[in-house]
Amino acid sequence: MSTFAHKIVRSAAVAGLTLAAMAGTGAAQASTSAPSGDASIQEACPSSGQIGYGRVCTTLSSGRLFHDKTQGSGPVTVRTWYEKSSGGTISAKLGFNYAGTTTWGSTFSQAKGTTKSASWSRNWSSDCYSTIGMMSVSGQGTFQTPSGTC
């Protein structure tokens, strides 16, 4: 599949869910399931972190942190999500960093076996900007993905 076609398919899968959840506000939304179309069947993230066009992940001690961007015919959707596979319940927030500025979503609690996600809508001309997925866990620190580019 061409890069352009792959981008369109990915964008279509998330556009409806994202717009409905965000209602165009740009606010982060937490959910208990993985965003549609995500590579959740991998055991671990590759050492490069690159798992697809603009999609990256990093393996942490209790799960995997993912980040990507998609664009259909409108704004760019920026997403960060965390699949927690083990350990105790955490209090955390998800975000992304672009050009040295980090945008954070709301704080949530997360137990093992669940996925939490946050997404933002940005009026960027392209989804090829370099961004980093971020997660801040109370009492543990901040974790990040590799840079997600085209």
Helix/strand class: mainly beta
Task: Please report which band the strand proportion falls in: under 5%, 5-15%, 15-25%, 25-35%, 35-45% or over 45%.
Answer: 35-45%
- Biggest sheet strand order reads 1-2-3-4-8
- Computed CA radius of gyration, to the nearest angstrom: 14 Å
What does this structure look like?
With 150 residues, the protein is mostly beta strands. It contains one helix and ten strands. It has a five-stranded antiparallel sheet with strand order 1-2-3-4-8. A hairpin with a 2-residue loop joins strand 5 and strand 6 (101-104). The protein is globular.
Topology summary:
Elements: H1 3-22, E1 50-52, E2 55-60, E3 63-71, E4 76-84, E5 90-98, E6 101-104, E7 108-110, E8 114-122, E9 131-137, E10 141-148
Antiparallel strand pairs: 1-2, 2-3, 3-4, 4-8, 5-6, 5-7, 5-9, 9-10
Q: Which structural traits does this protein have?
A:
single chain; mainly beta; 10 strands
At a glance:
By secondary structure, the protein is mainly β.
